[in-house]
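Homework help board

Subject: predicted structure for assignment chain

Our instructor gave us this sequence and asked us to write out the predicted structure in token form, then describe one feature. I got the tokens but I'm not sure how to describe them. Can anyone check?
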Amino acid sequence: MAASPAAADRAALLDVVRVAGGVSAAEVADRAGLPVSTARDHLDALVAAGLLAKARASAGLPYRPAWRYRAVTDDPTSSAYGRLLTAVLEHLGDEAADRAVADRVGRRWGGLLADACDDGRDPVEALVAVLDALGFTPRVAAAGDTTEVWLRTCPYLALVRDNPDAMCRIHAGVIRGALHRTGADDDTAVLEPFAGPEGCVVRLPAAGPDPSVSR
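My token output:
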């Protein structure tokens, strides 16, 4: 039986996202030659089917940013961390109080993880050790006036798919808590989900000794 035009379009868009990484609906529409509204409908259907995850790439800016999409390849619920997060996320929504709880949970966890790897490293090195332990495969790169920590893998994309804002806020809190535990401030760096094909990125002031994450 031949695939329907909608199914064929969705399969093509899924391939676009798999190749391109963290892309917006507008970027996918441009690559596929579709109207943005059509591409967005197909992408959200792929999210609902469990094939894509989406998160808002805030870049620390005040306006509400566009969704960005990545392909889901791993099932985080097989790990103890994934099961714990699943239970936590079941009780979190997008209200201000829920966002504050997600941030506090992440901060507490990040602080504990930083304590576990505390051997006199500077804040960036300690952060990289924490993110590596969580399975993010971090890579540090200089970018002008900032230091970027790229998170090249995410074992938790299925959880991001189901709870994008809360899940990313918890991970932002983990980063914030880890940096704070090393003596860093908590208002000078940005976590941007799905910033590009390589993954999410944490941006820190290159010359500052006190980086941290806000979102």
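Reply (TA_rk): Your tokens look well-formed. For the description, you could write something like this. The longest strand covers residues 190-196. That's the kind of observation they're looking for.
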